[in-house]
Amino acid sequence: MSQPPELNCPLPLGQYERIVMAHGGGGQLMQQLLDRLVQPTFDNPYLADRHDSAVFESGGLRYAFTTDSYVVKPLFFPGGDIGKLAVCGTLNDLAMAGARPMFLSAALIIEEGLPIESLQRVLESMAAAARAAGVAIVTGDTKVVERGRGDGLYINTAGIGLIQPTTPAIHPAAVVPGDVILINGDIGRHGIAIMAQREGLALETTLESDCADLSGLVAHLLDVGIDIHCLRDLTRGGLASALIEITEAARVSIQLDAPAIPVNDAVNGVCEILGFDPLYVANEGVMAIFMPESQASQALEVLRHHPLGENAALIGQVTGPASPGHVHLRTAFGTERSLIRLSGEQLPRIC
Amino acid sequence: MSQPPELNCPLPLGQYERIVMAHGGGGQLMQQLLDRLVQPTFDNPYLADRHDSAVFESGGLRYAFTTDSYVVKPLFFPGGDIGKLAVCGTLNDLAMAGARPMFLSAALIIEEGLPIESLQRVLESMAAAARAAGVAIVTGDTKVVERGRGDGLYINTAGIGLIQPTTPAIHPAAVVPGDVILINGDIGRHGIAIMAQREGLALETTLESDCADLSGLVAHLLDVGIDIHCLRDLTRGGLASALIEITEAARVSIQLDAPAIPVNDAVNGVCEILGFDPLYVANEGVMAIFMPESQASQALEVLRHHPLGENAALIGQVTGPASPGHVHLRTAFGTERSLIRLSGEQLPRIC
Q1: What whole-number distance in Å separates Cα of residue A206 and Cα of residue A95?
Q2: Which of B156, B198, B347 best tests the A interface by mutation, with the highest count of A CBs <10 A?
Q3: Structural domains of chain A, with CATH
Q4: Are B136 and A44 an interchain contact pair (Cβ–Cβ within 8 Å)?
Q5: What ipTM describes this predicted complex?
Q6: Which end of chain B has the least Cβ crowding within 10 Å, N or C?
Q7: Which SS3 state, helix, strand or coil, does residue B189 take?
Q8: Chain A: residue whose CA lies nearest to B144
Q9: pLDDT (tens digit, 9 = 90+) per residue, B276-327?
Q10: Nearest to B116 among A19, A47, A56 (CB)
């Protein structure tokens, strides 16, 4: 859980001769890997977009296409398992582009020796999550690797979604100064639930991952006419990293109001004991919504009437292009600090 | 490379308490895993189709959607690497549905410690293969797992392709008695090249994998008006397993002419020494084409003028529904034998 010291002062990727865990951590090192290696090599406007999904047009319709591999450890955790995560995560990436999910794929990399019963539980969990979203898993693949060349099970899901003609382009570039930032729920439950399970922490309350499919909630917001500018689910790197990424892509600044950001007491407790900052802890069912201030109270009303939005809150505002790349946090004491990208993440293999 | 004895007489999946390597081998055990666990759980007509891609309609157009994870070992081999394989393999799965590839995704699971230089070579190889096919890698994901929880690099690619309105439904169910079976090239080079590399065999000739993108060749056949009924690329389990699968899906029999099946001398040599049957060895750039006999000579002509079809041959015919599930091989000596599904594959982690 502690990072090697050199990661606190990241070197250019070129001086790393080998991949380290932080290259997959959703922080600065991963960003460098993407910026300096992946994007220049694959070089195309879709990737350069830095969106959760690629959006393309075909036959006069707009589609979203996305993929994620899941390597979460352990496979089963309070509130979910790798199967539910793999389905919800990809549904969410489609939803973040304003798309209604149509189809999913599922590709398994199984480590020799995995109990068939575990595989069955995970597949059932995937099927249940897909069914609940009204989406079919229509194509797949199965590979088996030798003992010691995997870790039970890795799952990749890819997804295709359709963007309704009336849906605006939901996208970091659509964020403008004055936009308010809402989140649909309290932050940090996924990361802390995983950590508690992994470390065998006996918590007084059972803390469950927030792992959930946000696509229905997004569709609902769009259906009632909320003019969403941008959506971002707060996965690896948490709220802070997601917002920093948006400020960089949209070339704006953000002012956050710390006391407004909902954090569960149990999450706060564990974070205080272990020295984690909930702003950087991963979520799997929480998103940031960028939208016009004029619709804020309507959107909050809609969110709070949805099971996945009970703890919805307005947490900040886009303040202008003056100091792009900056997220400023106003604390309860009236002081202010800038949020920076961590080099990696506090907890590897969270998703 | 030898199979545990019990796999020659497979038990129902229920009696396997844990996953074994053969569950990913493209043979009988993998089929059982899919038939008894994956398909009933995900239960939908697309999956039940048993096609290389799922085909769906949207906005009046037909699309193909497919995914594969790649765990080939070693990462680099004569004629290709895991990156080229991951791009070509998914392009081929789209092509097997008659689709022209539009977009690919790429998701990496990197083992901590992978040299950055290896990653770079693989990414460049993916980009080159995609570029050659005129397709962009538009979305992706990067995960890192600890040392000993992976094997250098696993790659998942998913793909979307568009099926032209004039293209018939290319599909096992379209296979009819009387159809001839063509292949575009000699078989077994991918599997034997991998094995030679893995085992450090010093061959007199350098044997290269046949790893190639077949989508251009398929488009060409369609463009000149060949009425293709079904296509299948001969990957895990080789020619024999692919044809057995088609006979089961289409409820037909197949008569194969052994002397007509092209096999490279070096492949034959290695197979003879090691007791492999080239009919079961994996290919990554060879496909079987089911089509009307009346167009056979035209199709052979077209194939042989294409760089990926120089060794094209007519190797057999669909003989009727009398004994479904059977592939009969007529040998050079005039004798006949039935091909059966192996329990796993001769060589794990071939793709």
Answers
A1: 29
A2: B156
A3: 57-167 (3.30.1330.10), 172-339 (3.90.650.10)
A4: yes
A5: 0.94
A6: N
A7: helix
A8: A24
A9: 999 999 999 999 999 999 999 999 999 999 999 999 999 999 998 866 679 9
A10: A19
